[in-house]
Design brief:
By secondary structure, the protein is of the alpha+beta class. The chain folds into two domains: about 90 residues, Immunoglobulin-like (Sandwich), CATH 2.60.40; about 280 residues, Purple Acid Phosphatase, chain A, domain 2 (4-Layer Sandwich). Helix content is about 15%, strand content about 30%. It has six helices and 20 strands. The strands form four sheets. The chain has a seven-stranded mixed beta sheet, with helices on both faces. A hairpin with a 3-residue loop joins strand 18 and strand 19. The chain starts with a strand and ends with a strand. The site of one fe (ii) ion has 6 residues, from loops. It holds the Pfam family Metallophos. Belongs to the cyclic nucleotide phosphodiesterase class-III family. It comes from Diplocloster agilis. This is Metallophosphoesterase.
């Protein structure tokens, strides 16, 4: 058996893997140390082998190599389905990653779609207990009902009594038909956001609430801006356009060192995680206006949800542009995720609900996504970007 790995750029995991395992049926690729796959990480890929035992896999999407990994391991399954062969290839030093210290740790979850069974949601919230802050990127409940938001408030208080939680609304957070009490902010999503604002203030967070529904929270070197771009009829639109003016002001008024974190349920068309042509229909009615504001700014991370896509899709869930000064992340889903891939063999846990960790250090943004059910980390959802300047 043999494995050849060609890496393309130091600090980046993009690479080509060529496997030769005579008589093998399929091979699984893992990031590994000098003896075995690194613990707690899912495979990189499962590749069918040709009758001559050959297989090739191209890893694209500018992921990173986890710091624990010093080797790549290929494990081939032989025709009796019991025997396996393994081959370890070292990762050359310039391509390995160093360990980062934890600094500011944010957890991000999206698309919880709570109905009346909160078990999965409790499990997701418990996985955020190490974080300084939890961000919720919309579709928090399934039908926008006041009872569902009440249940979610209980779950948060029960599982994360010491963690501030910042939300934005998704298209499922308002009932399909208008309900006056909710439109007036007396129940449903608006009062849930209000409740979390009061709660965050009790933890000493500085929360600037705009009458449009948007808000900004200042914490250390971060300015976190919440945009609630959703309304009845399952629409992704700003109820009040003033939210965009608020965003522009908040981004422009930052100090030189402040990193902007923008939370909005809808992905932007130009950063569509499905990478459809740019002629596709935007998710958000004010997509163009919002994109224009962002194109004039730097040093921010834009977090979206809505797609329920697995971060294991070949193109990946995160991208950075303009020398890393703008990062766009589509954050997966607490509900089972969608893979949209032609790959014939995929591990079953790649469709699990996901939780994303953002570790923000002096120089680096580290993104790790894992399965809510098992806590297994996904190599295809591990990124490191230089801290936007
Ligand atoms: Fe959703
Ligand atoms: Fe949605």
């Amino acid at each position: 058996m043999n494995l050849t790995v060609t890496f393309q750029t130091p600090g980046c995991a993009d690479s080509t893997f060529i496997i030769k395992a005579k008589g093998g049926l399929a091979a699984t690729l893992y990031w590994a140390d000098e003896t075995a796959p690194i613990e707690g990480w899912s495979p990189l890929a499962i590749i069918p082998l040709t009758p001559s035992g050959q297989g090739i896999f191209h890893l694209t999407g500018k992921r990173s190599i986890p710091p624990e990994a010093t080797h790549v391991l290929a494990r081939a399954i032989m025709p009796d389905l019991c025997r396996r062969e393994e081959f370890l290839a070292p990762i050359p030093t310039p391509y390995r990653s160093s360990f980062l210290k934890k600094k500011t740790s944010l957890c991000v979850i999206s698309d919880l779609h709570l109905t009346n069974h909160p078990g999965k949601i409790r499990q997701a919230l418990l996985r955020a207990s190490h974080a300084d802050l939890l961000l919720l990127i919309g579709d928090l409940v399934n039908d926008g009902l006041p009872d569902q938001f009440e249940m979610l408030s209980h779950c948060i208080q029960e599982t994360l009594p010491g963690t501030p939680v910042l939300p934005v609304a998704g298209n499922h957070d308002y009932p399909i038909s208008p309900v006056p009490r909710i439109s007036e902010g007396l129940s449903g999503y608006p009062s849930f956001q209000d409740h979390l604002m009061q709660r965050a203030k009790e933890y000493g967070l500085n929360w600037n609430q705009d009458p449009s529904g948007a808000y900004a929270v200042y914490t250390g070197p971060l300015k976190i801006i919440g945009l609630s771009a959703a309304t009845h009829w399952r629409k992704l639109t700003f109820q009040k356009e003033r939210q965009l003016t608020f965003l522009e002001q908040q981004l422009s008024d930052r100090t030189k060192n402040e990193l902007g974190i923008i939370m909005c349920h809808a992905p932007l068309l130009a950063h569509n995680p499905q990478r459809k042509p740019k002629t596709a229909h935007p998710y958000l009615t004010k997509d163009n206006a919002l994109q224009k504001i962002l194109d004039a700014q730097k040093k921010f991370i834009y977090l979206s949800g809505h797609t329920h896509l697995s971060p294991n899709i070949p193109a990946g869930c995160a991208e950075h542009e303009s020398a890393g000064s703008r990062i766009y992340i589509n954050t997966g889903s607490v509900r089972p995720t969608d893979l949209k891939t032609n790959e014939p063999l995929i591990p079953s846990d790649w469709k699990d609900g996901t939780i994303l960790d953002l570790n923000i250090t002096e120089e680096t943004i580290e993104i790790t996504t894992k399965s809510i059910q098992t806590g297994t980390k996904y190599p295809r959802a591990y990124y490191r970007f230089p801290l936007p300047q």
